[in-house]
Amino acid sequence: MPLSEEELRLLEQMERALVQEDPKLASTLRGTTFRQSARRRAILAGVGFAVGVGVLIAGAYFTLTVLGIVGFVIMLGCATLALSSLRGQSAAPDPRQGSDPAGKGGFTLIEGGRARKRGPRMRHTSSGSFMERMEERWRRRRDERGGY
User: Fold this and answer.
1) Comparing C-alpha atoms, which of 74, 86, 85 is closest to residue 47?
2) Cα–Cα distances in Å, from 130 out to 121, 134, 140?
3) Angstrom distance (rounded) from CA 50 to CA 39
4) Is the pLDDT of residue 120 over 60?
5) Which residues contact 148 (CB under 8 A, 6 or more apart)?
6) CA 40 to CA 120: how far, in whole Å?
7) What's the whole-number mean pLDDT along residues 116-123?
8) What would you measure as the largest C-alpha separation in the chain, in angstroms?
9) CA separation (Å) from 86 to 47, 92, 111, 118, 144?
10) pTM to 2 decimal places
11) pLDDT tens, 45-90?
């Protein structure tokens, strides 16, 4: 059940009063946003990757294969963590802007995938063999380029 306008107004007043009385408590209650925590994980993963490079070089310098493998595993894990954190950071909605720009509840559209630069292509539904399709493509290209 949604809050009435009066209840929302009272809630906002209480929130403003809390921020005025104890700003440190208010910031603690707000917590960190997802973007901030993803950025922090990515930075820590970068530091861990540098440590992994150091361990790998130390393993090569001291000719300790196990140490080199451990360094590589550290680098691989940190790179994976950094990439997943950065992907999550770019895909996460900004909570300060609200989850729905239209103001309605529900899902929002997220643009993704490859953008089409050309018009729609004609799709052949022929069940020809692979070689027949390749020959057809070759003929179309030759015709488009003027016969050579």
Assistant:
1) 74
2) 19, 6, 16
3) 17
4) no
5) 142
6) 42
7) 55
8) 80
9) 15, 10, 17, 30, 42
10) 0.45
11) 999 999 999 999 999 999 999 999 999 999 999 999 999 888 866 5
Burial of 34 per CB tally in 10 Å (0-12, 13-18, 19+): middle
**Could you tell me the pLDDT band of residue 43, with boundaries at 50, 70 and 90?**
very high
- 68 and 83 in contact (C-beta within 8 Å)? no
The DSSP secondary-structure symbol of 99 reads S
Closest CA to 79 of 47, 102, 125, 107: 47
Residue position matching structure tokens 């179309």:
140
Orientation angle between helical segments 65-91 and 34-61, nearest 10 degrees? 160
> CA–CA separation, 106 vs 94, rounded Å?
16
Q: What pLDDT, on a 0 to 100 scale, did the predictor assign at position 26?
A: 73
Residue 127, pLDDT > 50, answer yes
**Would you state the structure tokens that stand for residue 116, as one six-digit string?**
């089409």
Spell out where the chain has E strands.
none
